[in-house]
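Usage

Read records sequentially. Each one opens with the input sequence:
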Amino acid sequence: MSVEIAVKNIIFDFGGVLLEWSSDLVYLPYFENDVGNMQAFYDETQIKALNHDFDRGLPLDVGLKELSSRFPHYEKPIMFWKYAWHKMIGNSIEGSIK
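and closes with the structure output:
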């Protein structure tokens, strides 16, 4: 006996699609609510741009290791991208789940 399954949707990316996503949820508390210091981190490391490379298939460990080697003074917050990603997820986006 075979079972047929009808696939209605395949979701490859849920952050910003089904759920709110913001790295600020992790980094703002880390930088003690100092938006200027958080933005300096983003500007210097370009970690948000690197996230696009992750979405295109760059292995997380490879990208983060390379970035950490270029910005060793930011190694801890850079690694949040791997170890605290779940804290970057917010609420569901109204209407998307339907």
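Summary fields computed downstream for this record:
- Residues 35-45 form the longest helix (11 residues).
- The first strand starts at residue 19 and ends at 21.
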